[in-house]
Amino acid sequence: MSEKQTAIVVHPALKGSIENRSPEARLEEAVGLASAIDLDIVHAVVAPTHMPKPATLLSGGKVEEVNATLEAFAPRPELVIVDGSLSPVQHRNLEKAWNAKVLDRTALILEIFGSRAQTAEGRLQVELAHLDYQRSRLVRSWTHLERQRGGAGFLGGPGERQIESDRRQLSDKIVRLKKKLEDVRRTRTLQRAKRKRAPHPIIALVGYTNAGKSTLFNRLTQSSVMAEDLLFATLDPTMRAYDLPSGLRVIFSDTVGFISELPTQLVASFRATLEEVLEADVILHVRDISHEDSDAQRSDVLGVLDELGIQSGDNRPVIEAFNKIDMLSEEDRLTVEAVARASKDNFPGDLENPVRTPVSAVSGDGVEELLTLIERALTAAHDTRVFALDAADGAPRAWLHQRTEVLDENFDDTLLLLTVRIAAKTRGQFLKAFETAQDVTPNATARMIA
Question: Is 96 exposed, middle or buried (CB count within 10 Å of its CB: 0-12, 13-18, 19+)?
Fold first, then answer.
């Protein structure tokens, strides 16, 4: 797409539909999406629609009104973005009526993802989503669809229509891409298996696009991941190890931002990436608490998590970081802080009733408290255990210091007793990795000494 291409944005507001956001807020978000790929938006309008028209979605009067708007500009805008889902027939009819290229919401998000993907994996995922979308649009995209290719031999039939040939070629490409992505998924599974053998808890950052996830990720890990005031600034996942104040090593995972009506093609294509969330020990939901639609954005995030298989009833700790408190008025900030304090009764929290804490990823306010909550959530189910180690063998001692909270150490000539707080899973991994170590908590001590 050429730089600074001019465009207008139209948000069809269906009368009677139940929306969490106002039409004006939806229009503003659509303009933000268009700006994310450097389009020059010269006009944006809400188009109230009483009854969706099968041929054009919008009423005839609205279609003419948009066309008149296009004609009023010099030069005439080349692109119209319709912030809704268009059928192939509606897409084709609107392009004819307006004599301009038309993108619906799904196509626009696909364009953004295509421009953001940096890794080979990300590009594969975007290409697969594009092909899935195009396959449903063949009837719109081609003018030669009724052409036929002759069959082989004298007895052959008339052959396949061009649309059938095009669809078959797309299907073949999709099969090849899915195979490549399956290899990616297999690699990720192996990587996760390695992390489980050397267990560092994973904290997955999720949230609505532009909620400040990457900025908070950088603040937490002292990293320099791309973080800009853009929708979908982060597309490819990033993971960083970090030592919490107690010394417990964790891995923070920054993920792609969610959005309302995220195209199903993208949810499916990016499942290999988003599976990192499925493996997380703690889900950190970053919310832009200064945004007027923060509650609606939260619902959208939970909806995408539900599609991934993370539903109410999931017993993993969930922390909501109320980000951008530096942008609130004093009164609103006090209200947010009160809500966060009340939520501490739900510790360690879950999807329906998370623990909440106010932060500013920009200034650093509240980040120390957030790290404390993460540590508490990770250690809430930990037991206090005593391990007896060979004092001359430093490897198991170093392992415990790196992966658990060591409370006490007692040496003698040949024996080292370490008192630690440790998860049941980590305890099993430790005893399997170091067969000479013994769990002597607490009545097992008498058996070992005897």
Answer: exposed
